[in-house]
Amino acid sequence: MKKIGVLTSGGDAPGMNAAIRAVVRYGIFNNINVVGIKNGFRGLVEGDSMEMSLSSVADIIHRGGTVLGSARSKDFQEKEGFERALKNVKYLGLDGIVTIGGDGTFKGAMELAKAGVPTIGIPGTIDNDLAYTQYTLGFFTALTTVLESVEKIRDTSSSHGRTNVIQVMGRNCGDIALYAGLAGGAEMVIIPEVDYNIDEVCDKIMQGRARGKKHSIIILAEGAGDAKDISELIEKKTGVGTRYSVLGYTQRGGTPSAFDRLMGSQMGAMAVELLTSSVSNRVLGIKGNEIFHMDIEEALSMEKKFDEKSYELTKILSI
Ligand code: F6P
């Protein structure tokens, strides 16, 4: 193993830079040249890359985003683009590639692996929607960002005696909403994993008001509905002033949490270690305090288990 590539793909996530830094420095420490591929698989198709040095990753461990850039490449998914990418892998002399991202990234990595390019995947997405791993890079930072907003919105919600619907990201996964709801003391979470009944939501709001609650916070996962529609319906049914906020991209940026930096650093080093030991076509995950690896295809075929216990607990604790 003489030369490896590293790329970040899909939605960026805090902690990706820590992982890039670890791949580069752990690689160089082990006498491996590291090439940074810009803008994910698009960079591989276009041959857009840069040689990484120790100093190229200085001062990035604490920064959100990804210094390599990220994209969702359609070209890479098509035959012609994919073949161009393979040619570039050869041209650059890459013996393996570390791919950092979510399920789309891992699908791309799996295709490369099938075509004979050794790959290791590091889970990086704020959505926490990968079934095989307990957590993904960026999830906890995004959660903290959401909680900061929830607390601010709660202040004004209390002052005005309103209901506030807060829409968070997560695509088809409700984890950001669920854990922000539990950690933020929301009255209710609405997530794609559970069918909701608007009358039950309204009853919960009215019960809370009857026992003197000044505000109601509803955290809505983007995959479960539209904040504007739901808040209008709640106001109509309850007669309580209701506002909504869509937190949007603030959730994807910002200083990565200690956990995301640690996980990024450890996973980056492990990815290099695996490639140098001729172990490839694996993805890294975390369970408890342990970082593990598993077959990429197997990981992608797993179905995410819904944390029903936390969902029920959120409801109980907000009575
Ligand atoms: O996958 C991360 C994520 O932020 C999702 O939560 C969201 O639905 C999506 O990306 C937004 O994608 P884009 O950056 O393409 O608008």
CATH topology of the largest domain: Rossmann fold
Percent strand equals 15-25%
- The chain-level structural class is alpha/beta
Spatial strand order of the main sheet: 3-2-1-4-5-10-11
Organism: Sedimentibacter saalensis
Binding site for Mg(2+): 103
Function: Catalyzes the phosphorylation of D-fructose 6-phosphate to fructose 1,6-bisphosphate by ATP, the first committing step of glycolysis.
Pathway: Carbohydrate degradation; glycolysis; D-glyceraldehyde 3-phosphate and glycerone phosphate from D-glucose: step 3/4
Please outline what is shown here.
By secondary structure, the chain is an alpha/beta fold. The chain has helices at residues 16-29, 41-46, 79-92, 103-114, 139-160, 175-184, 198-210, 227-238, 258-276, 296-301, 308-317; strands at residues 3-8, 33-37, 49-52, 96-101, 119-123, 163-168, 188-190, 216-221, 242-246, 282-287, 290-295.
What this model shows, in words?
Catalyzes the phosphorylation of D-fructose 6-phosphate to fructose 1,6-bisphosphate by ATP, the first committing step of glycolysis. The active site is at 127 (proton acceptor). Pathway: Carbohydrate degradation; glycolysis; D-glyceraldehyde 3-phosphate and glycerone phosphate from D-glucose: step 3/4. This protein is α/β, with parallel strands linked by helices and 319 residues long. It folds into two domains: 3-138 and 256-301, Rossmann fold (3-Layer(aba) Sandwich), CATH 3.40.50; 142-252, 3-Layer(aba) Sandwich (Rossmann fold), CATH 3.40.50. It is built from eleven helices and eleven strands. The protein has helices at 16-29, 41-46, 79-92, 103-114, 139-160, 175-184, 198-210, 227-238, 258-276, 296-301, 308-317; strands spanning 3-8, 33-37, 49-52, 96-101, 119-123, 163-168, 188-190, 216-221, 242-246, 282-287, 290-295. The strands form two sheets. Strands 3-2-1-4-5-10-11 form a seven-stranded mixed beta sheet, with helices on both faces. Helix 4 links the parallel strand 4 and strand 5. Helix 6 (175-184) runs parallel beside helix 11 (308-317). The longest helix has 22 residues, at 139-160. The radius of gyration is 22 Å and the shape is elongated. The protein starts with a strand and ends with a helix. The model has no long low-confidence stretch (mean pLDDT 97). The chain binds 6-O-phosphono-beta-D-fructofuranose (F6P).
